[in-house]
Amino acid sequence: MTATKAGRTAAALLERAWPETRSYPVADLARAWRECDRIVCFLAVGAAVRLLAPLLRDKHDDPGVVCVDEAGRFAVALTGGHGGGANRLAHEVADVLGATPVVTTATDATGTGALDALGLPVEGDVAAVTRAMLDSVVDGALGGEEVTLTADVTWPLPPLPVTASDSPRPPCVVVTDRIVDPPRPAVVVRPPSLVVGVGASRGVAAEEVLALIHDALAEAGLSPRSVARLATADVKADEAGIVAAARALGVPLVTHPAERLADVEVPHPSEVVRRAVGTPSVAEAAALADGGELLVPKRRSAMATAAVARLRPRGRLAIVGLGPGARDLMTPRAVAEVRRCGYLVGLDQYVDQIRDLLRPGTHVIESGLGAEEERARTAVRLASEGHAVALVGSGDAGVYAMAAPALDLADDTFDVVGVPGVTAMLAAGALLGAPLGHDHCAISLSDLHTPWEAIERRVRAAADADLVVAFYNPRSRGRDWQLPRALEILAERRGPGAPVGVVTDASRPGESVALTTLAGLDVSAVTMRSLVIVGATSSRVVAGRFVTPRGYAWQPSPT
Predict the structure, then answer these.
(1) What ranges make up the beta strands (E) of 139-206?
(2) Cβ count near 46 (within 10 Å)
(3) Which of 305, 334, 341, 504 is the most exposed place for a label (fewest CB within 10 A)?
(4) Which region holds residue 437: left if phi is over 0, alpha if psi is between -120 and 50, else beta?
(5) How far apart are CA 451 and CA 325, in angstroms?
(6) How far is residue 377's CA from residue 317's CA, in Å, rounded to a whole number?
(7) β-pair type (499-504, 530-534)
(8) What is the tens place of the pLDDT at every residue in 493-540?
């Protein structure tokens, strides 16, 4: 919505960044309100409030509105902060316009998890319980009024400032798919735990399918808002009544081949059904096709069958690379994963780097050097129990870090998300120039887990292949001869003048960068916090910078 030339200019920037954006004059605000999910007004806040007031109906249904001032300095989330997405939109608009996002929602302003931003249906007195959660946080940690959380089973929730309890005590949050009446004030969170299997005769009406589903859920005391999906056989994928029922419930319809359903063990198989569709069960087998527990056996109406199963929650393990140390070299995705995890597991010094990012209610499990396998086991155990876990490490989690030991222990009972990070090799290379411009490799000189004989073979292979070599873990007080030996092997192929870069504490306080040669390197200055890059025969120093040219002229193909 624009009213001035400056507003139209800023709106044009958004249109170029977001091609799906549409512009409306201020006079068409009512039409934009009906047609759009999110609205950006290039108006003074007071003017926007007066125009919007007659249109406001329900914060769960109204579009989110962001207001941008005439100079484009601020993007203010005005209405619909969570439900309408205005808080997120304020940050997105600010990124495009170079403005400052202004978000005044209390949970966002304090970094406290918001119940209405969990991405799950919630019922009850959200405002009262949210106020209690905010009051429970003192100086960023729990210490005020206690809010309890009771859950039938563990779900991978983001951090909330709550205390786990076997029974709900107000104010409380209850996570359940059951119909309950907890003591007030309370919020009931509905997890996506139920699968409804459906079978039907041709021409079944959606009303009959829906009535059967609601009766089955009610009989078992289960909430329709916890239905994650409807499931049926492939041959029923186009059955209009089933498709319409899924649409009415607001859930996807999933279909399975008859041969897969036939392999699912069910309590009430039917030969009649087998002859008709190739499987002895549709409703029960479809409900159980992805595992789980059958809660409601097959029920029948005149033309339909339904059964309900409860899924086992899947935990979530994010393996996060924090980068080399500097906050601006930590990716936005890594920040998001750190902020969404319920449990953070990491080396104590790395946890200290990001402690300010953690939301109130995050459980932190930290340990010192040498406890890598223990951290991996802890993270995997928590994820297998259903929690949302972030296992953090420096650089990239997959490079000499925690991804390998964790995934070596992991099974398929929880989801795994890998978040790449800027490695020490990349950070050091950028400080030195372009030493990694052509083929290169990384070798760890630590023989704590790899025999030195194997390491030496790899160094010789890299020397024979004329690869640029980045040495991780190059030297410590107890390992002071391995680096000189590795450099000696490389010097046999490259000569004493090959360029060598040593970067210590890349992007951290005390950072140092040294550029020398194989002959001139003082190994006594190298520590475990250093990374050593040795050039290939083509590497050289240009204007004080370490360069390994690749060359972009096309080489003739061998004939």
Answers:
(1) 141-142, 148-151, 163-164, 172-175, 186-189, 194-200
(2) 9
(3) 504
(4) alpha
(5) 30
(6) 12
(7) antiparallel
(8) 999 999 999 999 999 999 999 999 999 999 999 999 999 999 999 999
